[in-house]
Amino acid sequence: MFGGTFDPVHIGHLVAAVNVRHALGLDRVLLVVANLPWQKTGRRPVTPAEDRFAVVRAAVEGVEGLEASRLEIDRGGVSYTVDTLRQLGEVYPGADLYLVVGSDLAGELGTWERIGEASPLATLVVVSRAGGHPQSAPRGWRVEPVSIPSLDISSTDLRERVAAGRPLDFLIPSPALRCIRERGLYAGS
Ligand code: ATP
Ligand code: MG
User: Fold this and answer.
1) What is the number of structural domains in the chain?
2) Distance (Å, rounded) from C-alpha 8 to C-alpha 53?
3) N or C: which end of the chain has fewer CB within 10 A?
4) What is the pLDDT of residues 47-99, one digit of tens each?
5) In angstroms, what CA-CA distances link 168 with 11, 52, 150?
6) Residue 189 falls inside a structural domain
């Protein structure tokens, strides 16, 4: 499970997903689009979940082992990772589950809703992220670090680029960028 707001998805997410799958020999990596990201709503306008999902789906189309997941959207309400991991355990009985996060999040995992209940359910995968975040993972988790080429890129940067009239080309896969344009998202892209 690789969860995120993906507002919008970018090559940093995709390089992370592909390399985690390769490094750990996983069958598939699900990019789980948060319905209501509780840490982000209220702080800034978040693009509607269906639009974010459509862009992620376009981004992973035809990429082996990567899937866009609408589990949290279909569940509705606020998205908590522990609930999603439980649900994945039911959907894929007996599967070895991995929770993938960027190194910027590893240190704050302890603040997530009921996340302590999730540590027996999954192995935590911490993906290196540009910016020098301390990689200390919370206690109680089995942890697999995965290094990826450093891509100093975030959805926040991309939204700022659009606002400043700068191009998103090659920072987002072309089919996803086409989807953004078709839906009139991030006006200006
Ligand atoms: P925002 O700036 O809006 O927070 P973001 O780029 O951090 O956007 P998220 O949707 O918040 O994207 O992140 C989803 C997951 O992807 C998180 O675990 C995050 O750490 C990871 N991630 C995002 N960008 C990168 C990157 N460039 N390299 C590695 N991991 C990344
Ligand atoms: Mg983020």
Assistant:
1) 1
2) 9
3) C
4) 999 999 999 999 999 999 999 999 999 999 999 999 999 999 999 999 999 99
5) 11, 16, 18
6) no
Residue 158 neighbours by CB under 8 Å, 6+ apart: 8, 10, 168, 171, 172, 186
Q: Which residues surround ligand 1 with Cβ inside 6 Å?
A: 4-7, 12-13, 16, 101-102, 104-105, 127, 129, 151, 153-156
Q: Using most ligand atoms within 8 A of CB, pick from 1, 2, 5, 135 the residue to mutate for ligand 1.
A: 5
Q: Which ligand is nearest to the CA of 2?
A: 1
pLDDT tens sequence across 153-167: 999 999 999 999 999
In a domain, 188, yes or no: no
Quick check: is 61 in a domain? yes
Containing structural domain, residue 88: 2-183
Whether residue 134 has a cis bond before it, omega within 30° of 0: no
Q: CATH no. for residue 41?
A: 3.40.50.620
Residue nearest to atom 18 of ligand 1 (CA): 101
- pLDDT tens per residue across span 2-35: 999 999 999 999 999 999 999 999 999 999 999 9
